[in-house]
Structure formats: structure tokens, C-alpha cells
Amino acid sequence: MHRARTPSILICTVAVWLSGLGFSGAANPDAQAFDQIEKGHYLATVADCYACHTVPNVGKPFAGGRAIETPFGVITSSNITPDADTGIGAWTDEQFENAVRKGLHPDGSRLYPAMPFPAYTKMSRDDVLAIRAYLATVEPVHQPVNSNTLPFPFNIRAAMRAWDALYFTEGEFQPDSHQSPTWNRGAYLVQGPGHCTSCHTPKSLLGGDKTSDNLRGFNLQGWFAPDITGDTNQGLGRWSEADITGYLKTGHNRLTAAIGPMTEEILNSTSQYSDSDLNAIAIYLKSLPGRQDATTAQAASPVMTAGQAIYRDQCSACHGIDGRGVAMLFPSLAQSSLVHASDPTTAIRLVLRGGRSVATTAEPTAPGMPSFGWQLNDDQVAAVLTYVRNAWQTAAAPVSAETVGKARDQLRTRSD
């Protein structure tokens, strides 16, 4: 996990870079310069720049080289340290802003939306330049990176001009005058630097956001990023504002625990948000309407009977006969939006492979779930998941053995 530098350490390290940033009086840097850097540090954390631009556990911070899986192939993240040759040290402020807010590389080529410029465009120029000011204080690393590692024809960057025309709308966030300042702050964070749409909004065949289904969940990187609207069954409708803030701050709440890619997001980013920003996000997300046309198929009685028997034998010790689990430790399956998601990918994955939640300073216990893939066949996994999705006055589409089999085959090819 990337640790934030304290202001006292920044005083020692920043002065070297101030002249390169165009600040006057580098020998006696003023408070305004440090305020901008601290602001940029916080915004870089909110935008989670560290996660994509740092190879986990072994890479130097922000030096790039991390492989990022997309539906079209693997992209390698770029070096954004202040190294003049292989990083962004030689970029002008205008070039940096164009990259972050417009998806335009200094050489004139278009960036791929794995760099979430469609969201970052909602940030102001001042916010973007504050991030640049902070990045100028990190250790410069000389590390050439070939970012364009997509297979043909997706490696032809010129095609991005057509993509931009279809899916990219440039422009800063515009507050809604009918909403409160807190709501607008939450909307800005979710839509802009937090770039929640990148994972939680369904995509078209070309990888563009389906705005009509904004934040209603999307399958990527072998997981399903769930619906985070106010939908009662599949989204956050059963969560209180405190549930949302607690989850983002600690990775746990009374209903569930973070798993999969969200654990990294919490460690590197949301656990370091201010309480006021977490509250703003919760207020905004709770205001988003859920689906109005949700329908589910009736689960067959024999499948439910078989699933109940497996659940009682294998699952009830942790999650309880009533499916309510243990608050802050074992998720409540009866109230889990992830369990009842329209796409059961994550639930299937957890049964087959198991998983471990996140450990944060506030909640240092990282409970894990064992793998049952070695013990249960596809029909049995389908039955137990169909049961937990439809027991306890809940309803979700049954899971088929065929779906489980496909997921099992896909997991065999994944190392994560």
C-alpha cells in the first residue's frame, strides 16, 4: 500500500521540484505551493493513480508497467514519475492537462479509455495541475514502458478518434442547482476523479459506457462490479449512508465485505478519503434510482431443495441458517446485493475459488472464504447459488450448471 508523505517530509523533498513547476522562490517555497501539492496528493489518491501506474508489491510508485486487462487485450500503464526521458518530467502543464482531461498524448496520439479521461474530463484545470504538482514530488524513475500492447487491430490508436466521437464528451462537472452542495460534491467525486463508471457501468461492444444503465454493474477482469444505484434488490437500496461510508473507509459493514478488485481500490484510495467526501458519495449514490423493470425466473423446487441441503452443510456455519452472517465479519447472504446481482459471476467465482477480504487500519481482520470448487460439481454449485439467491424473501434468476461450467473453465486460465 502506498503511504502518504507527511507535510514535514514534503518540505524536504518538494523544494527540489518547485523551480521545474514554475513556482517562484524555490529556495523559500511559499505556503500556496505546498497547499497545491497537498491538494494534488489528495486528488491523486481520490483518482487512484497509484493503483494503475504501479506494479503491485514490486514496482516503484507511479513508474508504470502494470498490465491492465481490458475486453480487447492487455494495456500496460505508463510511467508518470517526473523522469524527463521516460516519465512526464518534460511535459508542459498543457500537455499534462490534455492527457488527463482530453485523452490526448503529447505526441498527438489518442489515449485508450483504460486511462479514464472520459471521467477525468469533469475535473477542473486547477485540480489537474494540482495532481501534476504532487507527481513532481515523487521519486523520478527511469523506466521505459511500451503502453500500447493491444493486439491488432485494437493497437491502431487512430481508431480512437471515432471512439471519442461516439463516447467522449469533454467538459467540467456542472453542479445541479436543484441539489445540495453535499450531493453535488458526491456526484463530482463519483462521476469525475473517482471514475466509478469505469467499472460499474455496462459497456457497449466497443467499450463505451451505456449511459442509460449508469452504475448498474459490469463484468470485467473475471469479476462482476455490482450495481451501486439505489436498487433495493441488486444495488444499495438496503444500505444506509453509514453502510456505504463504512464500506468505503474500512472494506466492511454490517452487510458485506469487499472482495476482488475493490479491495485494492479501498486500500489505495477510498480508505484515505475525508469523512465529508465519503458522506457526500453516500448521499449521491443513495439518490440514484434503481431498476423499474427487474424480473426474475422462478427457481424450481427440486433445485431449491438440493441447494438448501448443500447450504446447511457447507455454508451455514459462517453465514447462518438464516443467511444473515456475522456483522463486520461474514457477509449477510440474505441481504447481499452481490448475491442477488443480475450477473452471478462474482458469486460463482467465490464458491469455486474462494477469496479474502481487505484488511484496513480500521478493520484489520481480513476474513477469507475457502474454495469449494474441488468439492462441489457444477450442478451442486448452481443449486446452492440458486438457493441463496431465492431464499429469505428474496428473488433472483436461477444459476445454471452450464454457467458454472463456463466460469470454471475461465478460472482455470486466470492466475488472479
UniProtKB/TrEMBL annotation:
Q: Where does heme c 2 bind?
A: C196, C199, H200
**Residues of the signal peptide:** 1-26
The record's GO CC annotations read:
plasma membrane
The entry's heme c 3-binding residues are: C315, C318, H319
Entry-linked InterPro entries: Cyt_c-like_dom, Cyt_c-like_dom_sf, Cytochrome_c-type_DH, Membr-bd_ADH_cyt_c
Whether Repeat counts among this entry's keywords is yes
Offer an example of a GO molecular function term for this protein.
Answer: electron transfer activity
What cofactor requirement does the entry state?
heme c
Domain of life of the source: Bacteria
Question: Quick one: where is this thing mainly located?
Answer: membrane
Parts forming coiled coils = none
PROSITE patterns linked to this entry: CYTC
* Binding of heme c 1, residues: C49, C52, H53
Q: Does the keyword Heme apply?
A: yes
Domain Cytochrome c, by residue range, is 25-139, 181-289, 302-392
UniProt KW keywords: Cell membrane, Heme, Iron, Membrane, Metal-binding, Repeat, Signal
Q: How is the cofactor bound?
A: Binds 3 heme c groups covalently per subunit.
Q: What are the subcellular locations of this protein? A: Cell membrane
Q: What is this protein called?
A: Cytochrome c, mono-and diheme variants
User: Lineage in the entry?
Assistant: Bacteria, Pseudomonadati, Pseudomonadota, Alphaproteobacteria, Hyphomicrobiales
